[in-house]
Amino acid sequence: MVSGTTATDDEGRLVGEGDVYAQATFILAKIERALTLAGASMADVIRTRIYLTDISGWEGAARAHGEVFGTVRPANTLVEVSRLIGEGYLIEIEADAWVADEG
Fold first, then answer.
1. Taking the domains of the chain in order of start, what are their residue ranges?
2. What is the rounded distance in angstroms from the CA atom of residue 45 to the CA atom of residue 56?
3. 46 three-state secondary structure
4. 65-75 b/e with 16+ CB inside 10 Å = b?
5. Is 11 helix (H, G, I), strand (E, B) or coil?
6. What is the pTM of this model?
7. What CATH topology corresponds to 2-97?
8. pLDDT truncated to tens, each residue of the chain (103 aa)?
């Protein structure tokens, strides 16, 4: 599981200020890196959760999600929350992946 993922770069700065799509794209790439380090891939993702501070930004979030997951099509939940930790964050994404034990 990769949880609590926001559009924060390696220096702790917000990426994509004011742009849900840019933040979502950055977050999904960050999740992909974490999964790769764990020996998994985006194709192993079975569920995602998307938290938006303004539900009207759902189209940008959905577009980024669709571009990344394409035919994988994990179960997804998208909800509006009153706020996220940190100023300027519009979206947070969690992903659950399943990798079969080859042993």
1. 2-97
2. 25
3. strand
4. beebbeeeebe
5. coil
6. 0.93
7. 60s Ribosomal Protein L30; Chain: A; (3.30.1330)
8. 788 899 999 999 999 999 999 999 999 999 999 999 999 999 999 999 999 999 999 999 999 999 999 999 999 999 999 999 889 999 999 999 998 776 5
